[in-house]
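Entry 12.
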Amino acid sequence: MRADEGRQLRIDFEGRPGRAGAEPRELPEAPTPAWSTEADELDATTGNTEDLLERICSWDNMSEACARVVRNGGAGGVDGMAVSELPDWLEANHEALAGRILAGRYRPKPVRRVEIPKKERGKVRLLGIPTAADRMVQQAVAQQLAPIFEPRFHPDSYGFRTGRSAHDALRAVKRHADAGNVWVASMDLERFFDTVNQSRLVQLLSDALADKRVVSLVHRFLMAGVAVDGVVEPTPEGTPQGGPLSPLLANVLLNELDWELERRGHAFVRYADDFVILKRSRKAAERAMGSVTKYVEGRLFLRVNREKSFVAHISRGVKYLGYAFYRRGGELRFRVHPRSLASLRDRVREILSRSNGWSLDCRRHRLRSLVNGWVGYFRLADMRGALRELDSWVRRKIRCVYWKCWKRVGTKFRALVRLGVGRGRAWQWANSRKAYWRVAGSGILDRALNNAKLEELGWTTFYQRYLELQC
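Predicted 3D structure (tokens):
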């Protein structure tokens, strides 16, 4: 163990304005949500007691958190410790770590800022990568808080919840639409994770948790700061994406919105910060969007992106969780949104680029992973025709890769002969000066590397995988 590892959690940022010990500013009293009337019963069944912090620090809970962090992998934080080093570090430092947490002396390190490009040109998503040890502590906190908050969450929220998925959210949209709610107010929360009001969030946690030491611990994570080019910047608002605790905290904050929508009688579906309100008429949807915008900005202190929020009929331009919708026989059905298909093609181009230098085995493996993951996610959609067309294009890309890999005239000639092309035709095409893409679409390469041959060589198709999942 390195000499600094035992000390790596001792760094203290208390001198910074808005430090972890600061009290949240006073906010106007919010209406009591429906779930709070059963809070006492829930506390009795979920173990929300004043020894919650002790359970967070227990060896069993910490070791489980460590195993999950290692299983999820990912990059290290500002201290340079790799995730793979975490089990040995925990075994050597658990007692000291637990002591600091229980004594209130634990100070998370700043998160490492990472910029992930968005689909919109020039825009990025800011991720915060905690150190491996901080990530483990966050996971340990989340494991104990999730059973406390899960019974309080609204049935129509689906993101980051055990036993719920995006498919469940989409089926809920279908259920509401089939009941006649076909006008959608699609609302976008602008930079949600970066603009979370920490005072409001801490107040909600304090109201719900009996052990206030846990609230203080979570507050310290929120105020840990971010390291940008070696300089630590404070984080007076937001909860950084990239940590195990952020999804749970997002649901804690937006749960207020869920129950307010319920109180107002709206049919809605929320997946993380992506939610839609479904109404029977355009006017009703427009009124709902206006009133909910006021609530979100005035009560939750979040910002609604008016440029990306809109009202539309569900079968005309609505995109939710990558899906689009259409109606047939009075029933809502799913299809893949054109932008999702365009994004898929970009990923295929990256894998089958002639100039990336990857081996055929590497390309096959990456394409197979993409096919399995993408089709698994979009399997609810009606897309047989779209996938047949897509596979035709993908096969041509694959043939193009083979033609480029063969390079020399002699190599092309021998490869074509092995694939059953006559020697004369093989020699003629091996000497062709036509562009790669044109040769890949020619009859000669289409017959030499036909669909059956590509399947024999181990190339996966989107359509075949889709049929397998429909069985």
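Annotation: The chain is about 50% helix and 10% strand. The first helix runs from residue 39 to 46.
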